[in-house]
UniProtKB/TrEMBL annotation:
Protein name: DNA-binding protein
Superkingdom of origin: Bacteria
Residue stretches making up the PPC domain: 1-136
Keyword DNA-binding: yes
Gene3D superfamilies in the cross-refs: Hypothetical protein, similar to alpha- acetolactate decarboxylase, domain 2 (3.30.1330.80)
Claim: Membrane is one of the keywords in the record: no
Key words of the record: DNA-binding
Lineage: Bacteria, Bacillati, Bacillota, Clostridia, Eubacteriales
Pfam families recorded: PCC (PF03479)
Alphabetized InterPro entries for the sequence: PPC_dom (IPR005175)
Organism of provenance: Ligaoa zhengdingensis
Amino acid sequence: MGRLYEVTVEKDENVKEKITQYILEQGWEDVYISGAVGSVRNVKLTNPVSAEFPPRVGTTECAGPCEVVAFTGEVMKRERMDPVLEKIYPDKTCPLFIHVHASVGVAGSHMYGGGFHDGYAFRKLRVFLQPLDEQE
């Protein structure tokens, strides 16, 4: 696997937009997100709400600040994404498909997890990326 890179999402920046911008600037097409450290706010997570395939998904909103406990996933050019996932994630505006699973802790030590749909850096979030298409 290739070298590890870090992108820092500063306070109030949109997490997915910052990751997208960084990956497009690097010219990468296939990236593994190995983790993240920091805090986020106003997070939206998705989870299946039906047993059919592909499942319908529901959204859980975590208003306010959250600590990132887990953050892992993949990024690829939209045309390479699984057609089943296209039905679940219908947004076609971004040239990349960012597929991240996250867990966040909120006040009272409550945990939420699922597909990371949206969120903003609370103080700062460091995201660790490994391009899979980079030549060593």
